[in-house]
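[Automated response] Your request has been received and processed.

Submitted sequence:
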Amino acid sequence: MNIAYYIVGALAALWIGFSGYSLFNKSDFVVEPLRTYGVPRSWWNPLALAKSAGALGLIAGFFVPPIGIAAAIGLILYFLGAAATTIRAHSYSTTVFPVLYLIPAAATLALQLAR
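Generated structure:
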């Protein structure tokens, strides 16, 4: 179970961290949907910071478990909010994308709690 936790946690952190970096970098594939959903530009850097901090927290959780638990819970809430934003914007076909980030964060939390 420990090996699965480290693998899933590291992959989740890399994937979510890349998403945070892409938002900081204002990559079109990330910011175009935000424009479509009506997310104010002033929120972009705080959202990128939240994703990046969550990714770093997942890694820190390897050494300090409560930080990893808090980071996973924070990321789950973040991506639930992102999914709600797509639904609020009536962009139902894109709701799957935040869920695809939520799943590895939730799996990391489940594996960490099962340790």
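Summary generated for your ticket: The helical segments are 2-24, 28-37, 44-60, 65-88, 96-114. The chain has a mean pLDDT of 97.
If you did not submit this request, please reply to this message.
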